[in-house]
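task queued by scheduler; priority normal; single chain, no ligands, no partner chains; default sampling; output format set to structure tokens
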Amino acid sequence: MKILAASQERPVQDFRLQLVTAVALLTVVFVLPFAVYRLVFGPQLAGAINAFIVVAAVLIAAYAWISKNIDRAGKAISLVLALSALTVTTVLGLNGVLWFYAIIIFVFYLSPPILALALILTVLGGVAAMELSAPQRIFSEPDQLASFLASATTTAVFSWLFASRNAKQRRQLLLWATRDPLTGLENRRSLDQELDIAISTARREDRRYGLIVIDTDNFKEINDNLGHAAGDETLCRLAEILGDSTRLGDRLFRYGGDEFTIILPNVDRDALETVAHKLVESIADRTESAGTPVTVSAGAALLDPGEDKDAWNRRADRNMYRAKQLGGNRSVIDHP
């Protein structure tokens, strides 16, 4: 599940990688000149902080590109930006405060919404504590502190609301794109991604994978004689039985119509044949629609070395049609 989730999040992760890179570039372009100037002409402490921000941002961006761990990189650079904003404000006063609004935007783009909100509110609390403990250290008038806190907090809260809503919508869109709404199983798009992952893993780790394609023998008869509601109920029942009859690590998909596909990791030919046979038996024993027995035909194929996903899927599909030609309610697997 984690592997599939990662593959489905790639467009989002790529965008966040671009953001991490953009933050690093912006710190080089806009912060590095301040670092050089202040290191030369003072205050040196502010220059050192500016230099730290630049180096940290560049190193985190490099880490993100090398490791592809965008979540960790985003959190790290958000923490650096938040703490640096507080530190720079301590040294520069009002000139440091001016960077807060840009940092709020960056942090909410790069971190989970709740973490970003906690970071920003913590930093704002730090600014308020500094000013209250030493009046006019940052702001020349008391109402300036109140105005800053009100505007920055409002910006942070609205950013949190927007980021939370955006994350929820992204999860919902991902669910709609990768799940079959009737059975709740993953759909053909997810299957294509998972086949790629299985082949890549098999080549990299020398693991054996099996593929089972299952199609009902009399689904058209059920739809025509009993109606589409009965057909939908049958599909949901099949999905339930297949889910109950497979291992936790097996991947079950509704390919389309009344066809289901299962990817099984770490199986040999005998185990794959046994599983396919038992699935056919379980469905025949446990499924009927308004008194009409429901049976399926199953085709199975073990992934061959160097085989691509289309060839692998075609072999399993051919075996499924072979099972139908033999009368249905049976499974067929390749034999050496």
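post-processing summary
- The first strand starts at residue 209 and ends at 216.
- Confidence is low (pLDDT under 50) at residues 1-9.
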